[in-house]
Amino acid sequence: MTQIKTEIHALLPEIILLRRQLHQNPELSLEEYQTADCIEAHLDALSIPHRRVAPTGVVADLIVNPDYPTTAIRAEIDALPIADEKAVPYASRTPGVSHACGHDGITALTLGLARLLSAHRDALSTNIRFLFEPAEETGRGARLLIDGGALESPKPDQLIIFHFANSEPFGMEIQREASTATVAGLKIEVTGSSGHWAESSLGNSAVSAAASLLCAIEGLNATAVTQKPFIIGFGTISGGVKSNVIPDTCAMEGTLRAFTESDFDLLFSSIRRMAENTEKRTGTQIRVSLSHRTPAVINDPRLIQKGCDAGRAVFGGRCVLSGSPFLVGDNAGWYFKDIPGLRIVFFAAQDTAPNYPIHHPKFDFNEGIFGPALEMLYRMLLSL
After folding, report:
1. Distance CA 256, CA 181 (A)
2. What whole-number distance in Å separates Cα of residue 169 and Cα of residue 349?
3. 54 FRET partner, CA 20 to 30 A, in 4, 164, 240, 324?
4. 196 labeled binding residue
5. Which residues of the chain register pLDDT less than 70?
């Protein structure tokens, strides 16, 4: 591995430069045309065949031996509608858009991995399929790639995905079972009847009914009995047109997140039941709906062991096998329903600058993680 470490060290400036170029030029979901062009240019330089799937997804195959199994590696490529507030030379040049979730780093590291694997393909016992996924942030990318045949001809035998977090110093973590939650958008629309507040008995406030229902639903966070942790939260509420007019409409949008399908269904049933009770009590009409439901990412036991073995060889005791999953969502759950997979989290807290969480306008991570992460992924792929 001494020679590989030397090669990885030599690759790091290229990976960091690419990451910063992507960071400066973020593109929103399904608008990642320049990003996809950049990815394809790097693949062309490595003579790795590729094709577009959907408008901005890229699927590439590094074929070692047609008789070998295939391992898929997913990299998200989209950015978020969040202004970049970091005072760094590589800050976003696109107003109101930034890579606040680390997808720039994931894409850059995956292309660095492609270069390393291409140079050492004779050491592999697996073919590699790279899935450069658009629109992960909107929950659509995985289905777009699947519908475009990304898991066909041949169907991958296994999948690896990874992410960066800055909540801990250098290290990595793998969850024993569920790594992410089953997640869906939750929308509640309340319809009442309008009127003047001076004659309140003649109207029916949709805002009052919505407020009552919101408090009841969020109370489930403390009272519901489930197999594993969950969260229900609302991010927006909007209703009414004027302070002295009884509001006849109100809409609330939020999220429902649970680690098991049974817990998710139980909680949604409770929400619907609460909505029905509120309808009867207030005389309003209430519509409850879900959107963009994605399955949980459940790690495969064999790949957990392979990942931990490779991780401990690189990170030592900083490679953690955890029983505490994240209540984040990832549409990669759709891949995991079809093929066994593994989700890895690489920790990369910055040494001096404050560490802001993902989706924060000042989110960033320590680029020093690229070397250890690249070595870990390379070691794991050699073992497959």
Report:
1. 9
2. 5
3. 164
4. no
5. none
Instruction: Give the model's pLDDT for residue 324.
Output: 84
Q: How far apart are CA 340 and CA 217, in angstroms?
A: 35
Q: Is residue 324 a contact partner of residue 249, using CB atoms and an 8 Å limit?
A: no
Four-CA torsion 13, 14, 17, 22, nearest 10 degrees: -150
23 annotated to bind ligand: no
Distance CA 268, CA 361 (A): 32
Q: Does residue 120 have a known ligand-binding role? A: no
Domains of the chain from N-terminus onward: 2-180+296-382 (3.40.630.10), 182-294 (3.30.70.360)
Looking at residue 326, what is its pLDDT?
83
| pLDDT score at 212 | 97
> Which is nearest to 287 in space by CA: 369, 349, 210?
210
Tokens of 111: 């292309």
Q: Would you call 299 exposed, middle or buried from its count of C-beta atoms within 10 A (0-12, 13-18, 19+)? A: buried
Residue 1 confidence (pLDDT):
82
Only one residue has tokens 């979730």, namely: 101
**156 prior amide bond cis, ω within 30:** no
Residue linked to tokens 């989700």: 343
Q: Say if residues 67 and 329 touch (Cβ distance below 8 Å).
A: no
DSSP codes, 250-319:
EEEEEEEEESSHHHHHHHHHHHHHHHHHHHHHH--EEEEEEEEEE---B--HHHHHHHHHHHHHHHGGGE
pTM of the model: 0.91
Angle at 188 between CA 142 and CA 231, to 5 degrees: 60
pLDDT of 352: 82
Q: How many helices (H) and strands (E) does the chain have?
A: 10, 14
**Residue 31 assigned ligand-binding role:** no
Quick one: pLDDT at residue 40? 99
163 annotated binding-site participant:
yes
Give Cα 129 to chain centroid, integer Å. Answer: 19
Point out which residues pair with 319 in neighbouring strands.
Answer: 172
Q: What is the pLDDT of residue 372?
A: 98
In the DSSP assignment, the letter for residue 357 is: P
> Distance between CA 286 and CA 282 in Å, rounded?
10
CA 257 distance to own-chain centroid: 13
